[in-house]
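Researcher: Let's do a round of design. I'm pasting the C-alpha cells now; please hold your answer until I've finished.
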C-alpha cells in the first residue's frame, strides 16, 4: 500500500500504519492539552461511520479513526476473505469530514504473535451475535483493548447498529478500568430504512430490495408487541414473513432490556428488538429501540 506511510502529511489527515509513531504523535497532542476522540472501524466506510467521526469531531480537538479488519473476530474464513476493502475511497471520505488521524495497521503490527488471550462475557455473549458467531466477542474485546491502549482516547464512538458489541465494550471498559468515555451513536439508515452497513455493497439489485425485510420486520414486531402478543408468537410470524422473500433466512429476532441485556417475552422497561439474518450469502443485523422516552 504505497500511499500509506507513517507521518505522511496530507492536507487534512495524518496517516499511520505503525503503533510507535502514532503513539508519539498523540502524546505530543495530549501534552499540549488536546482531547482525543476515537472511532474504530473495519473500513468500507459509509455515512454511518462518518456520523461517528462527525460526533467525535464535535466533542474533541483530535479525531482518530482506525481501519482494521480484525481477523480474530471472524469465525468464518469466507466472511473475512470477502469483507469489502476500499481504503482509497475511505481516505477521501475521512478527509471530507475533517478526520485528523487515520490508523490502518497491518496484521503483523496488531498481532505480532498469535493471540492467546480469550475473553468470556458470560450471559452477555451467550445470545445473538455471541451464540451465532462463537469467539466473535473475544476477538472484538482483544482488538478494542489493543486499540484503546494504543490511542488512549478521552472518548470512543460506537454505533447502536452493533448494540450487543456496545454492551460488550461497556463491560470491558467498566471491568478493566479503561479511562475512556463511551458514546453510542444512533443507526444511520438508507432512504428506505435499510441500516447502512459495509456489507450492503455485496448485495445485488434484487437482494438489496429484499434486504429491507429486516427493518420492516423490526417495525412489524414492535407493532405486534404493542398489541400485546408474546415474543414467541411474534418471532414465528416474523420468521414466516422474512422467509417469504427469496434468499432471505432469519437467524434470530430477540427482545431484551437495554440495561442488563436480558431476554424478554414482552416489553416491560426500556427494551430493544434485535434481528439478524442472511440475504443470499450476506449476513445483516439491525435493531430498534423501544420505549425510548
Ligand atoms: P464496522 O466498520 O462495521 O466495524 O463499524 C464501525 C463502527 O461503526 C461500529 O461502532 C458500528 O456500530 C458503527 N456503524 C456501522 N454501521 C452504522 C450505521 N448504519 N449507523 C451508525 N453507526 C454504524
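Researcher: That's everything. Go ahead.
Model: Designed sequence:
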Amino acid at each position: 500500500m504505497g500511499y500509506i506511510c507513517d507521518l505522511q502529511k496530507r492536507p487534512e489527515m495524518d496517516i499511520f500504519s505503525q503503533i510507535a509513531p502514532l503513539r508519539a504523535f498523540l502524546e505530543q497532542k495530549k501534552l499540549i492539552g488536546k482531547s482525543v476522540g476515537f472511532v474504530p472501524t473495519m473500513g468500507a466506510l459509509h455515512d454511518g461511520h462518518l456520523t461517528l467521526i462527525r460526533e467525535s469531531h464535535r466533542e474533541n480537538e483530535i479525531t482518530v479513526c482506525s481501519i482494521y479488519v480484525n481477523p480474530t473476530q471472524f469465525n468464518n474464513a469466507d466472511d473475512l476473505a470477502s469483507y469489502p476493502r476500499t481504503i482509497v475511497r475511505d481516505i477521501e471520505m475521512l478527509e471530507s469530514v475533517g478526520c485528523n488521524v487515520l490508523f490502518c495497521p497491518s496484521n503483523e503490527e496488531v498481532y505480532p504473535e498469535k493471540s492467546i488471550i480469550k475473553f468470556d462475557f458470560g450471559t452477555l455473549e451467550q445470545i445473538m451475535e455471541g451464540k451465532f458467531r462463537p469467539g466473535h466477542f473475544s476477538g472484538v474485546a482483544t482488538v478494542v483493548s489493543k486499540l484503546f491502549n494504543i490511542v488512549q482516547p478521552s472518548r470512543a464512538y460506537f454505533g447502536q447498529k452493533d448494540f450487543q458489541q456496545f454492551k460488550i465494550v461497556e463491560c470491558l471498559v467498566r471491568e478493566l478500568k479503561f479511562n475512556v468515555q463511551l458514546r453510542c451513536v444512533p443507526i444511520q439508515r438508507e432512504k428506505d430504512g435499510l441500516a447502512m452497513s459495509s456489507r450492503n455493497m455485496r448485495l445485488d439489485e434484487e437482494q438489496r430490495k429484499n434486504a429491507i425485510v429486516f427493518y420492516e420486520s423490526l417495525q412489524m414486531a414492535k407493532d405486534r408487541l404493542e398489541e400485546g402478543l408474546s415474543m414467541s408468537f411474534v418471532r414465528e410470524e416474523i420468521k414466516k414473513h422474512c422467509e417469504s422473500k427469496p434468499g432471505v433466512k432469519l437467524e434470530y429476532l430477540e427482545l431484551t432490556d437495554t440495561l442488563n441485556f436480558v431476554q424478554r417475552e414482552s416489553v416491560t422497561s426500556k427494551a430493544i428488538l434485535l434481528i439478524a439474518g442472511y440475504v443470499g450469502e450476506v449476513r445483516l443485523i439491525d435493531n430498534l429501540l423501544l420505549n425510548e422516552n
